[in-house]
Amino acid sequence: MAASAAAAEVSNRRVTLKRYVTGFPAEDDMEVVAATARLAVPPGSAAAVVKNLYLSCDPYMRGRMSRHDEASYVPDFVPGEVLTTFGVSKVVESGHPGYKPGDLVWGMTGCEEYTLVTNPETLFRISHPEFPLSYYTGVLGMPGLTAYVGFFDVAKPKKGEYVFVSAASGAVGQLVGQLAKITGCYVVGSAGSDEKVNLLKTKFGFDNAFNYKKEHDLNAALKRCFPEGIDIYFENVGGAMLDAVLLNMRLRGRVSMCGLISQYNLEEPEGVRNLFCVVAKRIRMEGFIVMDYFGTYGKFEEEMAGYLKEGKITYVEDVVEGIENTPAALIGLFHGRNVGKQLVAVARE
Ligand SMILES: NC(=O)c1ccc[n+]([C@@H]2O[C@H](COP(=O)([O-])OP(=O)(O)OC[C@H]3O[C@@H](n4cnc5c(N)ncnc54)[C@H](OP(=O)(O)O)[C@@H]3O)[C@@H](O)[C@H]2O)c1
């Protein structure tokens, strides 16, 4: 539908980056500003206006808050401009033949109430609205696909193998652990509080778990949990944990390099000391970026929806109400404040 002179203009609060960040980000590095949005697409364009319902808070957004001299795999945010993130949205107006008002989608959108999406073909349709729509920021969205491809495609698990997951109660980690159990693996997780450790054992079915903040010797903690060593490490944190894991890997083990959150706020990344283990134990360490697998999303969505329906996978979310609370929610990731997948509820319909 083309823009009309009578198209409604609505209030559109948005979250912008105030300045490039060094070190730990602070709420004050972002700003919630009042703006307006026109609920119409430019005449002749194939854009869509969407109403954002749920916005995702993801650790990789920290990287985008700094200025990089060399381009990374995603562009830096620009001070003064709205942040972008994965979100769940409802189409309000569309110049794109593939979308009509009322369609439910997830994909890259703005940290704001309404967004003019200029490339709606990048959005994914929501095929299972019977689940909470917020799941499309997590178990049925980007983090879910991350857990799935990082475990199955990169780590290539076999039944009976020993699997270790760090940041195990988070958006990605809780799913890796459950997928490992479905595969018939023995799985242990680490997390940063006793509450999270309890969740791992009682809700997500991990065989064992420990609070890494209470362990003085990570190597000893891993030896206690894996007397026979680790076949697969699903790496979410890096730093001292990676070093301790390398000492405990088994012959021909695999390390699925998903993320290194302990390094994201450091000016100088920490080194890895035990790399010779990779040689001696013939370990395969492999990084991946979920975006490379977006073409496989449809197959993943069906499989994960099946697991949810059968009760084989459960999912814990940490939902913050109101777009004005986005900066605090995002920063909380780097202090371990989130219990489960962190997201912001902007509107309920
Ligand atoms: N490769 C990809 O395509 C891809 C896609 C999505 C996510 N990722 C990566 O996957 C990892 C998990 O992401 P997520 O979305 O699932 O986040 P999340 O686990 O839901 O939240 C982040 C968690 O990281 C832990 N953490 C924070 N600072 C830490 C530190 N210094 N040392 C150890 N743990 C720390 C905290 O849990 P505790 O309380 O347990 O410390 C925090 O709750 C991140 O590294 C992220 O960058 C990669």
From TrEMBL:
Under SMART domains, the record lists: PKS_ER
**Any keyword Oxidoreductase?**
yes
* Residues covered by the Enoyl reductase (ER) domain: 48-344
**UniProt key word Oxidoreductase:** yes
Alphabetized, the UniProt keywords read: Oxidoreductase
MF (Gene Ontology):
2-alkenal reductase [NAD(P)H] activity
Entries under CDD domains matching the protein: double_bond_reductase_like
Q: Note the Pfam families from the entry.
A: ADH_N_2, ADH_zinc_N
UniProt subunit comment: Homodimer.
Q: What is this protein called?
A: Enoyl reductase (ER) domain-containing protein
Name the lineage: Eukaryota, Viridiplantae, Streptophyta, Embryophyta, Tracheophyta
